[in-house]
Structure prediction request, 75 residues.
Amino acid sequence: MEEILRSTDPVLISCAQALLKAEGIEAVLFDQHSSAIEGSIGAIPRRLMTLREDAAAARQLLREAGLLDGGGRER
Prediction:
């Protein structure tokens, strides 16, 4: 598994998941339970992970959608 997005923004993560699913790229959300336990302060970012062989295509898709900058960080 390889991280393609890390964010405390649940809307951004949801959007990224929907885009990836629409393109047939399976993504798994890590740290969801830790983030929920800490409450609403948003201190623990969630990580969106894909298989290593899908990571480049996933990043490209998220860049084209304006969700990642050129360096692979969230906008």
Remarks:
- Residues 14 and 29 are 10 Å apart (CA to CA).
- The beta strands are 2-7, 27-30, 46-50.
